[in-house]
Specification:
The protein has 16 helices and 22 strands. With 512 residues, the protein is of the alpha/beta class. Among the domains are: 87 residues, Beta-grasp domain (Ubiquitin-like (UB roll), Roll), CATH 3.10.20.30; 157 residues, 2-Layer Sandwich (Nucleotidyltransferase, domain 5). Strands 8-7-6-9-11-10 form a 6-stranded mixed beta sheet, with helices on both faces. Strands 21-20-12-13-14-22 form a 6-stranded mixed beta sheet, with helices on both faces. Strands 2-1-5-3-4 form a 5-stranded mixed beta sheet. A hairpin with a 3-residue loop joins strand 12 and strand 13. Helix 7 packs across helix 13 and helix 10 crosses helix 15. The longest helix has 25 residues.
Length: 512
């Protein structure tokens, strides 16, 4: 039998050298190197563009549709559509993603042994090894979610899960990846698996189902609800993880719809359920979740808003990684852009997008209707990065959904946004967004001193859960009884409020 020929791939600018057999998919090879696949490798977007500097990669019909003749001539290809047929030198659009971890001090009741807290995000993973007797974090590991090669956002992931063996593939992939992260934690801290007593995972409802082996089909269509959102408990041996035989692995319960246990963890971390006054929590990741309330009653909801805030569905959008425009401000009537890594701009991430539109409104390059000034089709931020008319529309749709969802929840609570004592912004986007820009575009109509970046509240909440079993089973039953999930898709007023919130506010309104 003839051995299959292998080829060499050199990745620029990192210098990584890979080897793979002829016919191997560039999608699988380059995902670990930072290439994103927003449409799940279907060739429907430009998010996985790479430039072939040496060697040959054939362009198929999907690439000829998505890439201009000049781009094709210059060597640009869609990695998801290319198979390895030659030695290659490729240049990546983005790399070195920054992932938000947590080092917030917290009160705890000591327990024997070690524990692991895991924030299982659609895009990223963070795991921390914790000494349960001292509360000290012994090691931290982060990674891109390996499932993202099959779709960057939740709906793309659900679409892949619906295909034959899709759900099993995603389940197997994420369980193995988290097992690998835990192994790296143990090696880093020089401890054995026998010392780990408890593992707590949190994530959105889709991540909860895909890890736990629960059918995600009900989440893929109206009314987007699942009946199996409760606490899921495993023995480490069931997952084939090399830990103490008595180790318990708990995936905390979700709150309803697409509001997952990451938001439950956020409520724990910010102490929303203990507040005497009305407060709120907002997490704008690949989906947008909102919670408002007090110690007596909390309302929560999710909106299909997140992809724009993470750069997805934006023509030159990207994750907050090296090469991303992350901040934009106006100086002497011109734009000044800050680029992560101090390199030439490659694209724009969510915080940069919000800044750019806020700046455009101030210099009247963008009208309050969202139209670009002078009938332009695109607006240059910093060569070669541009915003198109469609990019601005995507941001309008996202911010309108968040603003409308917030208004509906606050009406249920019997109050208004201006009466909130504090609004906590969770996650990486909330940590990096300029609050004045968020207010300028109408995303958060609150004075900036009432808006507080809260960091990775999902990870902090998971750590808190390592020290509290909430009775005997860790299901947080009493707390969940005080939280009401509001399905916005079933609210008759949502569409009308959404339309009202589409326009950007005038500067007069913002300053008032």
């Amino acid at each position: 039998m003839t051995e299959k020929k292998t080829h060499r791939i050199i990745v620029r600018p990192t210098g990584v050298e890979l080897r793979a057999p002829a016919g191997a998919s560039l999608r699988d090879l380059l995902f670990e190197q930072g290439v994103e696949f927003p449409c799940g490798g279907q060739g429907r977007c430009r998010g996985c563009r790479v430039r072939v500097l040496e060697g040959t990669a054939e362009a198929n019909a999907a690439q000829r549709e998505r890439l201009s003749p000049q781009e094709l001539e210059d060597g640009w290809r869609l990695a998801c559509q290319c198979s390895l047929g030659d030695d290659l030198v490729v240049e990546l659009r983005q790399w070195d993603a920054a992932i938000l971890v947590d080092d917030t001090p917290f009160h705890f009741e000591p327990r024997p042994g070690l524990g692991v807290a895991v924030d299982l995000g659609t895009t990223t993973l963070v795991a921390q090894l914790v000494n349960l007797s001292t509360g000290k974090v012994l090691a931290v590991r982060t990674a891109l979610n390996a499932q993202a090669r099959y779709g960057a956002d939740i709906m793309s992931r659900l679409q892949f899960a619906a295909a034959e063996d899709g759900r099993a593939t995603l389940e197997r992939l994420i369980r193995r990846q988290i097992a690998s992260l835990i192994t790296h934690l143990m090696v880093s801290a020089k401890v054995s698996g026998d010392e780990i007593r408890d593992v707590v995972l949190v994530g959105n409802t889709v991540m909860h189902h895909l890890f736990c082996g629960i059918d995600v089909e009900p989440l893929s269509h109206y009314p987007f609800e699942s009946n199996e959102i409760g606490l899921q408990t495993f023995r480490a041996s069931e997952l084939e993880w090399n830990l103490n035989k008595a180790s318990t692995v708990r995936f905390l319960p979700c709150l309803g719809g697409f509001v997952g246990s990451d938001i439950l963890a956020g409520i724990l971390a910010t102490k929303l359920a203990k507040s005497l006054e009305n407060v709120g929590l907002m997490d704008l990741g690949t989906n947008g979740e909102i919670v408002v309330g007090n110690q007596s009653k909390l309302y929560c909801a999710s909106t299909a808003a997140g992809p724009a805030f993470e750069g997805a569905r934006i023509s030159m959008g990207m994750r907050a990684a090296t090469g991303a425009i992350c901040q934009v401000q106006v100086e002497d009537e011109r734009l000044v852009c800050q680029v992560l890594g101090n390199v030439a701009p490659q694209g724009v991430c969510g915080s940069g997008l919000v800044d750019a539109v806020a700046a455009g409104l101030e210099i009247e390059a963008i009208q309050s209707s969202g139209r670009l000034g002078n009938g332009a089709k695109e607006w240059t931020l910093a060569e070669p990065v541009v915003l198109t008319q469609n990019d601005i529309r995507e941001l309008q749709l996202a911010k309108a959904a968040i603003a409308a969802g917030s208004r509906i929840l606050l009406e249920r609570l019997g109050t208004s946004l201006q009466d909130l004592k504090m609004l906590y912004l969770a996650g990486a986007f909330g940590n990096y967004i300029r609050r004045s820009s968020a207010r300028r575009i109408g995303l958060i109509d609150l004075p900036i001193d009432k808006v507080t970046p809260a960091g990775n509240t999902a990870l902090l909440g998971a750590k808190l859960a390592l020290f509290s079993l909430d009775g005997e089973d860790g299901s947080y039953t009493e707390l969940r009884c005080r939280i009401e999930h509001v399905p916005l898709n079933a609210d008759q007023s949502f569409q009308d409020i959404f339309v009202e919130e589409l326009a950007f506010p005038s500067s007069t309104h913002v300053r008032s």
